[in-house]
Amino acid sequence: MSSSLLSLYPPTLPLRTHAFNVSGGHVVHVEESGRADGTPAVVLHGGPGSGFSPLLRRFFDPARYRVICVDQRGCGRSTPLGAINQNTTPHLLDDLRVVRQHLGIRRWLVVGGSWGATLALAHAWGEPEAVSGLLLRSLFLARPEDVTWFFQGARSVLPQAWARFASAADVEGAADVSEDLLTFFADALKRRTAALNLPLALAWWQWEQALAGRTNASESELNPKAQDALVHRYRVQGHFLQHGCWLSDSPVLSMCTQLPPVPTLLLHGIEDRICLPEAAQAAHQRIQGSCLQWVPEAGHDPTHPAMVHAMVAALDNFARSANFGASERRWVP
């Protein structure tokens, strides 16, 4: 890998934090960083259920951006943690409207990765006047085939790792659920205590790590607090995936044909085995004026050096000129 690759900006502390009371008893945690008069940008984390990582704001030049980081309902420091009551995609979109209006932001750059990119597209489709640009990393389309790939189709890529994932159901005495792991995991994570669900959450996490290229990921890497967070994370994620992320009536690819005419860049790792490259290609073909940039050697991990370089370069360009300054890179699978 070239030594000239751009790197993340140094860690910074938030300028201010907010706790917004929204519907259903949820309190949404929001952090602002960078400079108060900088280019507004909202960061949408993945999952669903993952929560905001401070690493995500380090893609932005703090001297140029006003970075708004939102913990979605049930995630991160939003409360109640892991709650799935009144926690749907329409609720998350309503929350973004509340955050933007309370902060006095007319338009913002929307940056999302994986599920965050899905939510970014839905937000731009529903509130086109609020969006100045879209930067979509590792796009997840939330189609039935995308969910089926993760739980079933990818077994052909990593059969041993998938067998370990599916064996979590076997331990529960439900060996026949291997053809519907989503239903088993989602239902179990909703109805049982955190202690009983920890083995399931760890099995899900290890399968996700294997698809991301870390086949030897071990629970010993996670402290007790991080392990507990996984239970909440996958409860929310299972809830969303079980319901098609509430996007069946307005599929993401249909939204792509009706987006505002703003600079739109899709970045996707060629080696991504969680959100397959075909998804980015399909969206790009439908988003008028969009640019698709393939990131060589990168998978789903946002910290891969090539992905970091692509993200930082794109955001630096947008801060300078209100466009991403990217040229499309052709890729033949």
Q: Could you characterize the architecture of this molecule?
A:
There is one protein chain. By secondary structure, this protein is of the alpha/beta class. The protein has 2 domains: about 15-140 and about 245-320, 3-Layer(aba) Sandwich (Rossmann fold); about 145-245, no CATH class. About 40% of the residues lie in helices and about 15% in strands. It is built from 10 helices and 8 strands. β5 (about 110-115), α2 (about 115-125) and β6 (about 130-135) form a beta-alpha-beta unit. The two termini are about 20 Å apart.
Neighbour order of strands in the largest sheet: 1-2-4-3-5-6-7-8
The overall average pLDDT, rounded, is 93
Strand content: 15-25%
Helix content: 25-40%
Tell me the distance between the termini.
21 Å
Radius of gyration: 19 Å
Which structural class fits the helix and strand makeup?
A: alpha/beta
Note the overall shape.
Answer: globular
Strand segment count: 8
Summary, kept brief:
This protein is of the alpha/beta class. It contains ten helices and eight strands. It is 38% helix and 15% strand.
Write the layout of secondary structure elements.
Blueprint: E1 16-21, E2 27-34, E3 39-44, E4 65-70, H1 89-102, E5 108-113, H2 115-126, E6 131-137, H3 144-151, H4 159-171, H5 181-191, H6 194-211, H7 224-242, H8 252-256, E7 264-269, H9 277-286, E8 291-295, H10 305-321
Parallel strand pairs: 3-4, 3-5, 5-6, 6-7, 7-8
Antiparallel strand pairs: 1-2, 2-4
Helix pairs in contact: 1-2, 4-6, 5-7, 6-7
